[in-house]
Design a protein that fits this description.
The chain is an all-beta fold and 177 residues long. The protein is built from no helices and 10 strands.
């Protein structure tokens, strides 16, 4: 669109000159971050108590168990003692901000939580002793927004801490797309 600029009076007439539109810098639009809370779509474990009951696949999807009991709809390791791991995969890569671990039995064995990036590298985000409320319930681990996109969560357990099985029903990954 052309703008007309007044240049002054010329005798009895008025002199106007058409000018090109002057560049106007528009403010940059920052997209609103989309927060995604998602459940695992696949899982694998160092061991499984059974199949299909208590298998790693039982830790995918939303929580199924709402009581504090040993339940075949949750994952359990084969031995119930020693070191174990559960690795979960998610459909949408996100810049992680939180991990929620839903446990149904034997809390206290969880020792480490790692986030897996798109290249397969695992980064430690939590290490310690699970002192969350009794089961069932979620151990919520806030994470400073990761500078890399996360596609998986790896849980490491030391069931020698408790002397019995730790059962995990679901693991939710929260982040920003």
């Amino acid at each position: 669109m052309k703008r007309i600029r007044f240049l002054g009076w010329l005798g009895l007439g008025v002199l106007f000159v058409a000018c090109g539109r002057s560049p106007v810098s528009e403010p940059a639009v920052t997209p609103t971050p989309v927060v995604v809370a998602q459940w695992a779509v696949a899982a694998q474990a160092s061991s499984e108590f059974g199949f299909p009951d208590w298998s790693a696949s039982r830790a995918t999807g939303e929580p199924d168990v709402n009581t504090c009991t040993s339940d075949p709809r949750a994952w359990a390791s084969a031995r119930g003692s020693g070191l174990e791991s559960l690795e979960l995969t998610y459909a949408k890569p996100v810049y992680a901000t939180e991990v929620r671990i839903y446990q149904t039995w034997g809390r206290g064995a969880l020792s480490r939580v790692l986030l897996v990036d798109e290249g397969g590298a695992a980064q430690l985000v939590w290490e310690g002793t699970d002192t969350a409320d009794p089961c069932p319930g979620a151990l919520i681990i806030p994470v400073p927004r990761t500078p890399y996109r996360v596609v998986g969560v790896r849980l490491e357990l030391d069931e020698s801490r408790t002397g019995f099985w730790n059962e995990i029903d679901a693991v939710e990954l929260v982040g920003v797309q």
